[in-house]
Design a protein that fits this description.
With 401 residues, the protein is of the alpha/beta class. It folds into two domains: 5-189 and 309-400, Aminopeptidase (3-Layer(aba) Sandwich), CATH 3.40.630; 192-306, Alpha-Beta Plaits. It has ten helices and 16 strands. The strands form four sheets. Strands 1-2-4-3-5-16-6-15 form an eight-stranded mixed β-sheet, with helices on both faces. Strands 10-12-8-13 form a four-stranded antiparallel β-sheet, with helices on one face. A two-stranded antiparallel ribbon has the order 7-14. Helix 4 (109-125) links the parallel strand 3 (76-82) and strand 4 (133-139). Helix 4 (109-125) packs across helix 10 and helix 8 (315-329) crosses helix 10 (383-400).
Length: 401
């Protein structure tokens, strides 16, 4: 097979201006999770323009495109881009600022979709140069449970043809444009939502014999849970040496200076990187909470909503993808990533298919592009679009071999 390195680079440069326009259109017209109607329609229009076979309407707004090379049944590589935006008011004063007040592409999904589209265009133009099939998915609803990836899997995106390997990227302003980051093995955590109601007996604060203060019971529960799951740092280890975080960010009592409420509600998150320990931890949280409430003659209602599983990068696939990045960017521009306790619904795919989820450098300190994701001033160095497009196209072809 001929060396396609320079050809892929040339095509990425050739389409760069067009892809910047695509990204700016997507950025200016963000849509919230599972409401990406116009986004889906726009991407479908671009695929039609470039004569790329695809099916729209997967999980309502999702799209699956197929690029068939020679001997298409030989192997299948999946490239994934997500499409949804966040409920954030954008503060960037740029020509492509969001026109939808209160909605912003603050997590870079406009870049993800653009890079995946760019890779699809290049791969479609080069389909006579490789063997196998490349499946491109434009996914809705990454930001909210149950996650668009899980729903698309239920609708069969990993079949027909069966996916052998999957790849996704995510913007990362900690790295400069022109750089990429990789980590083999465990990379991102599972994420669960925890809702606890402590129900006691309310009353007048001046008459303690007539009430059973749920605020004090809730505080005891929080102290006990913090001892059971000590978070010394973002990567503290539990008793089984598994990275674990249990954190509570909301406590609601709705009493007053002289009113003891009947109920206290607590909301938090549990994150880890082992499915067996995850199940055990849920049981421990529930038991500890209910035992304390019972001992205080109160009632505890514990609800734990399972979110995304932990994300694992297959060692062989990640090594191959990383080597592709080194080949295109140079060893000095490819870095090793630390563990993260954030979550990502690509984990549903990584749990079923050997996968690589890598970080695309999008920062530029000289241009003041340093804001992190999920902030009102998040932006990127648009040169990273060319890098992301190039890497996805090259990785897809390399992983078909």
């Amino acid at each position: 097979m001929i060396d396609l390195t320079e050809l892929i680079k040339q095509k990425a440069k050739q389409h760069f201006s067009y892809l910047v326009d695509v990204r700016r259109h997507l950025h200016a017209h963000p849509e919230l999770s599972f409401k990406e109607i116009e986004t889906s329609r726009y991407i479908s229009t671009q695929l039609i323009k470039h004569r790329i076979e695809h099916q729209a309407g997967i999980v309502n707004t999702g799209i699956v495109a197929l690029i068939k090379g020679k001997n298409p049944d030989k192997r299948c590589v999946l490239l994934r881009g997500d499409m949804d935006a966040l409920p954030i008011i954008e503060k960037n004063e740029v020509p492509y600022k969001s026109v939808h007040e209160g909605v912003m592409h603050a997590c870079g999904h406009d870049i993800h979709s653009t890079c995946v589209l760019g890779a699809a265009i290049i791969l479609n133009e080069l389909k006579d140069s490789f063997e196998g099939t490349i499946k491109i998915i434009f996914q809705p609803g990454e930001e909210v449970l149950p996650g668009g990836a899980s729903l698309m899997i239920e609708e069969g995106i990993l079949q027909n043809p069966k996916v052998d390997v999957a790849v996704a990227l995510h913007v990362f302003t900690d790295l400069n444009a022109g750089q990429a980051g990789f980590r083999s093995g465990m990379y991102m955590a599972s994420t669960d939502e925890i809702y606890i109601d402590i129900i006691g007996k309310g009353g007048h604060a001046a008459m303690p014999s007539e009430y059973n203060n749920p605020i004090l019971i809730a505080s005891e529960v929080l102290q006990a849970l913090s001892k059971e799951f000590p978070n010394q740092s973002a990567l503290s280890l539990d008793k089984n040496n598994v990275p674990t975080v249990l954190a509570f960010g909301k406590v609601t009592a709705n009493g007053a200076t002289n009113v003891i409420p009947e109920k206290v509600s607590i909301e938090g998150t549990f994150r880890t990187m082992d499915e067996n320990w995850r199940k055990q931890a849920h049981e421990r949280i529930t038991k500890l909470t209910t035992d304390i409430a019972t001992s205080k003659k109160a009632k505890a209602e514990v609800k734990i909503i399972r979110g995304y599983p932990f994300l694992v990068n297959d060692a062989q696939v990640t090594t191959q993808a990383k080597n592709t990045a080194i080949h295109y960017l140079g060893k000095e521009n490819v870095v090793e990533l630390p563990l993260r306790m954030t979550a990502e619904d690509f984990a549903f795919i990584s749990q079923q298919v050997p996968s690589c989820f890598f970080r695309l450098g999008t920062g530029n300190k000289q241009q003041g592009i340093t804001s992190g994701v999920h902030t009102a001033t998040f932006n990127i160095d648009e040169n990273s679009i060319e890098t992301g497009t190039t890497l996805l196209a090259a990785m897809a072809i390399d992983l078909l071999k």
